From TrEMBL:
Keywords: Cell membrane, Membrane, Transmembrane, Transmembrane helix, Transport. Belongs to the binding-protein-dependent transport system permease family. Coiled coil: none annotated. It comes from Streptomyces minutiscleroticus. The keyword Magnesium does not apply. GO terms for cellular component: plasma membrane. The lineage of its organism: Bacteria, Bacillati, Actinomycetota, Actinomycetes, Kitasatosporales. This is ABC transporter. Residues 1-24 are annotated as: Disordered. One of its GO terms (biological process) is transmembrane transport. It is a multi-pass membrane protein.
Length: 316
């Protein structure tokens, strides 16, 4: 008696049409449908796109906050670009942004790589270091304004180091204070980015480097830094956008002074709109900031090749 064994044939590979049908009905694995993004899209449209369109329209009007806006065409634009304070504020914004990137990037990389290790007491020290990240920009600015007060703060007690103690009385020292406070508050955030990126680097790369005789410094410059490339680009873009739109720090620490020596574009927008009741000109300055930050970010993404980055988890 012969026993026949029947072996089931493997299922045929699903076609693209079958996968699309399964994905659409939630029975397969694939890219999520548009319905998943709909709540975020509606939220973004209501609280980002719509206000931006309103600001763009308002930039072509004259409005003091009461009554109806009066259309004035390009008058606001010609006034702000013919205003020397506005031109100066743009350069100051770029300067503070460049200082932030130049100071925070190396600090964040070094601290992030260190925090990704397994050193003794690393977790406790990292938790303490991340405390500034939990505070608002307003609270941080008020804190440092009190600490650096020329009459009652630290500079008044250490005149041998700070001279007359008035760090807000000169442009160079005032800009230095703004850069320092921004670094103190936001470096922990970027450190967190680099910590996560450093932990994602395969350990086998370091093991192979040790076998080849590479020391710690060569491993850092030839393995760690190249592997952090995309994290560096992401962090830098966030620094640029944040630097161009910072406001509370200048408002509380320097009020744009001495004179207009620290009047950055965001603070000048506030002065025009909420102090001078010239909401048309203020809206034009706000739109300039949005466009500038967007263009700089797109240029950085394109030149760095970040837009071509691929991931095996893309679309999941």
């Amino acid at each position: 008696m012969t026993t026949q064994t029947t072996t089931a044939a493997p299922p045929a590979a699903a076609t693209g049409k079958d996968r699309a049908h399964a994905t659409a009905h939630g029975t397969g694995v694939g890219r999520p449908g548009f319905g998943w993004a709909l709540p975020a899209t509606v939220f973004f449209a209501l609280f980002a796109i719509a206000p931006l369109i309103m600001v763009a329209v308002l930039s072509f009007t004259r409005w003091g906050g009461l009554g109806s806006p009066e259309f004035v065409g390009l008058d606001n634009w010609s006034r702000i670009f013919g205003d020397p304070v506005m031109i100066k504020s743009i350069w100051l914004s770029l300067l503070l942004t460049a200082l932030g990137v130049a100071i925070q990037t190396p600090l964040s990389i070094l601290l992030g790589v260190w925090a990704a290790g397994y050193q003794r007491n690393r977790a406790v020290l990292s938790a303490i270091y991340f405390v500034p990240l939990l505070l608002s920009s307003t609270a941080v600015s008020v804190l440092w304004r009190a600490l650096l007060d020329p009459n009652f703060g630290v500079p008044a007690e250490l005149t041998w180091l700070f001279g007359d103690g008035n760090l807000f009385g000169k442009q160079a020292t005032a800009i230095g204070v703004l850069a320092f406070v921004s670094t103190w508050q936001f470096t922990p955030f970027h450190t967190l980015i680099y910590q996560g990126a450093a932990r994602a680097i395969p350990n086998v790369l370091y093991q192979a480097a040790e076998i080849d005789g590479a020391g710690r410094y060569r491993q850092f410059f030839h393995i760690t830094l190249p592997q952090l490339r995309n994290a560096i680009i992401t962090s830098t873009i966030l620094m640029v956008v944040g630097g161009l739109t910072t406001f509370e720090t200048v408002l509380i620490l320097t009020q744009g002074g001495p004179g207009t020596d620290t009047t950055i574009s965001a603070y000048y927008m506030y002065q025009k709109a909420f102090k001078g009741f010239d909401f048309g000109a203020g809206s034009a300055i706000a739109l300039v900031l949005v466009v500038a930050a967007t263009i700089i970010s797109l240029i950085m993404v394109r030149l760095s090749g970040y837009d071509k980055m691929r991931s095996s988890m893309e679309g999941l």
